[in-house]
Amino acid sequence: MKNFRLSFRLFLIGYLIATIVGFSIYYINVYLMWISIFTLMPVIFGYLFYSYLKKAKCKISETIKETNRLVVLWIILSFLLDAVVYIIIVPIIYRHKSNWTFFIDQSPWIWLNYMTLLILGHVSRFIYLKKLKKPT
Protein backbone atom coordinates (compact mmCIF):
# COMPACT_ATOMS: atom_id res chain seq x y z
CA MET A 1 0.00 0.00 0.00
CA LYS A 2 1.45 3.33 -1.06
CA ASN A 3 0.02 5.35 1.81
CA PHE A 4 -1.52 3.39 4.67
CA ARG A 5 -2.13 6.47 6.82
CA LEU A 6 -4.09 8.20 4.03
CA SER A 7 -6.12 5.08 3.29
CA PHE A 8 -6.97 4.64 6.97
CA ARG A 9 -7.93 8.31 7.41
CA LEU A 10 -10.16 8.34 4.32
CA PHE A 11 -11.86 5.12 5.42
CA LEU A 12 -12.57 6.54 8.88
CA ILE A 13 -14.13 9.66 7.34
CA GLY A 14 -16.46 7.53 5.21
CA TYR A 15 -17.28 5.16 8.06
CA LEU A 16 -18.05 8.04 10.40
CA ILE A 17 -20.39 9.68 7.89
CA ALA A 18 -22.17 6.37 7.17
CA THR A 19 -22.49 5.61 10.89
CA ILE A 20 -23.87 9.04 11.77
CA VAL A 21 -26.41 8.87 8.94
CA GLY A 22 -27.29 5.30 9.85
CA PHE A 23 -27.84 6.04 13.53
CA SER A 24 -29.85 9.19 12.84
CA ILE A 25 -32.22 7.42 10.43
CA TYR A 26 -32.37 4.07 12.27
CA TYR A 27 -34.78 5.50 14.82
CA ILE A 28 -37.15 6.57 12.06
CA ASN A 29 -37.18 3.28 10.13
CA VAL A 30 -34.62 0.49 9.75
CA TYR A 31 -35.41 -0.04 6.04
CA LEU A 32 -35.08 3.67 5.38
CA MET A 33 -31.69 3.50 7.11
CA TRP A 34 -30.43 0.83 4.70
CA ILE A 35 -31.83 2.71 1.70
CA SER A 36 -30.10 5.91 2.79
CA ILE A 37 -26.84 4.06 3.45
CA PHE A 38 -26.93 2.46 0.00
CA THR A 39 -27.74 5.81 -1.57
CA LEU A 40 -25.15 7.83 0.32
CA MET A 41 -22.36 5.27 0.60
CA PRO A 42 -21.61 4.93 -3.12
CA VAL A 43 -21.23 8.68 -3.46
CA ILE A 44 -19.03 9.12 -0.40
CA PHE A 45 -16.91 5.99 -0.64
CA GLY A 46 -16.59 6.33 -4.42
CA TYR A 47 -15.21 9.81 -3.90
CA LEU A 48 -12.90 8.57 -1.12
CA PHE A 49 -11.53 5.74 -3.29
CA TYR A 50 -10.88 8.24 -6.08
CA SER A 51 -9.32 10.69 -3.63
CA TYR A 52 -6.94 8.04 -2.36
CA LEU A 53 -5.72 7.15 -5.85
CA LYS A 54 -5.30 10.83 -6.71
CA LYS A 55 -3.55 11.85 -3.48
CA ALA A 56 -1.32 8.77 -3.52
CA LYS A 57 -0.43 9.68 -7.12
CA CYS A 58 -0.91 6.15 -8.39
CA LYS A 59 0.57 5.43 -11.81
CA ILE A 60 -1.52 3.58 -14.37
CA SER A 61 0.46 0.37 -13.83
CA GLU A 62 -0.11 0.53 -10.05
CA THR A 63 -3.83 1.20 -9.95
CA ILE A 64 -5.18 -2.36 -10.09
CA LYS A 65 -2.90 -3.60 -7.31
CA GLU A 66 -3.41 -0.46 -5.21
CA THR A 67 -7.20 -0.57 -5.68
CA ASN A 68 -7.35 -4.24 -4.69
CA ARG A 69 -5.27 -3.59 -1.58
CA LEU A 70 -7.44 -0.63 -0.66
CA VAL A 71 -10.67 -2.57 -1.20
CA VAL A 72 -9.47 -5.49 0.94
CA LEU A 73 -8.25 -3.14 3.68
CA TRP A 74 -11.51 -1.18 3.74
CA ILE A 75 -13.67 -4.32 3.81
CA ILE A 76 -11.60 -5.72 6.71
CA LEU A 77 -11.71 -2.39 8.57
CA SER A 78 -15.45 -2.08 7.97
CA PHE A 79 -16.08 -5.61 9.24
CA LEU A 80 -13.93 -5.06 12.33
CA LEU A 81 -15.42 -1.66 13.15
CA ASP A 82 -18.95 -2.99 12.63
CA ALA A 83 -18.17 -5.78 15.08
CA VAL A 84 -16.65 -3.45 17.67
CA VAL A 85 -19.31 -0.75 17.34
CA TYR A 86 -22.45 -2.86 17.00
CA ILE A 87 -21.54 -5.93 19.06
CA ILE A 88 -19.56 -4.27 21.86
CA ILE A 89 -19.92 -0.48 22.10
CA VAL A 90 -23.61 0.04 21.29
CA PRO A 91 -24.78 -2.66 23.73
CA ILE A 92 -22.61 -1.12 26.47
CA ILE A 93 -24.04 2.35 25.80
CA TYR A 94 -27.63 1.07 25.84
CA ARG A 95 -26.95 -1.46 28.63
CA HIS A 96 -28.03 -4.44 26.56
CA LYS A 97 -26.45 -7.83 26.11
CA SER A 98 -24.02 -8.06 23.21
CA ASN A 99 -25.66 -9.16 20.00
CA TRP A 100 -23.35 -11.94 18.81
CA THR A 101 -25.67 -12.64 15.87
CA PHE A 102 -25.36 -9.07 14.53
CA PHE A 103 -23.98 -10.11 11.13
CA ILE A 104 -26.68 -12.76 10.74
CA ASP A 105 -29.42 -10.37 11.87
CA GLN A 106 -28.31 -7.73 9.39
CA SER A 107 -28.08 -10.13 6.43
CA PRO A 108 -28.14 -9.66 3.51
CA TRP A 109 -27.77 -5.88 3.82
CA ILE A 110 -24.48 -5.75 5.64
CA TRP A 111 -22.86 -8.24 3.26
CA LEU A 112 -24.14 -6.21 0.31
CA ASN A 113 -22.54 -3.21 1.96
CA TYR A 114 -19.14 -4.93 1.89
CA MET A 115 -19.68 -6.02 -1.72
CA THR A 116 -20.50 -2.43 -2.60
CA LEU A 117 -17.01 -1.42 -1.41
CA LEU A 118 -15.51 -3.90 -3.87
CA ILE A 119 -17.52 -2.49 -6.77
CA LEU A 120 -16.95 1.14 -5.76
CA GLY A 121 -13.21 0.69 -5.57
CA HIS A 122 -13.02 -0.49 -9.16
CA VAL A 123 -15.54 2.01 -10.53
CA SER A 124 -13.49 4.78 -8.89
CA ARG A 125 -10.34 3.27 -10.37
CA PHE A 126 -11.82 3.45 -13.88
CA ILE A 127 -12.80 7.09 -13.34
CA TYR A 128 -9.30 7.84 -12.04
CA LEU A 129 -7.71 6.13 -15.06
CA LYS A 130 -10.00 7.99 -17.45
CA LYS A 131 -9.01 11.34 -15.93
CA LEU A 132 -5.34 10.33 -15.80
CA LYS A 133 -5.27 9.46 -19.50
CA LYS A 134 -7.18 12.60 -20.46
CA PRO A 135 -4.86 15.08 -22.22
CA THR A 136 -4.52 18.37 -20.39
User: Helix/strand/pairing class, anyone?
Assistant: mainly alpha
Low-confidence stretches: none
Give, in order, the helices and strands: HHHHH
Helix content: over 70%
| Rg calculated over all Cα atoms | 16 Å
In total, how many beta strands?
A: 0
Largest sheet: none
Domain count:
1
Number of helices: 5
Distance between the termini: 28 Å
The percentage of residues in β strands lies in under 5%
What general form does the structure show? elongated
The quaternary organization reads as single chain
How would you portray this structure in words?
The protein is an all-alpha fold. It has one domain. The protein has five helices and no strands. The protein has helices spanning 4-26, 30-55, 63-94, 102-105, 109-133. The protein starts with a helix and ends with a helix.
Tell me briefly what this model is.
The chain has five helices and no strands. By secondary structure, the chain is mainly alpha-helical.
Short descriptors:
mainly alpha, 136 residues, 5 helices
Outline the secondary-structure elements.
Elements: H1 4-26, H2 30-55, H3 63-94, H4 102-105, H5 109-133
Helix pairs in contact: 1-2, 1-3, 2-5, 3-5
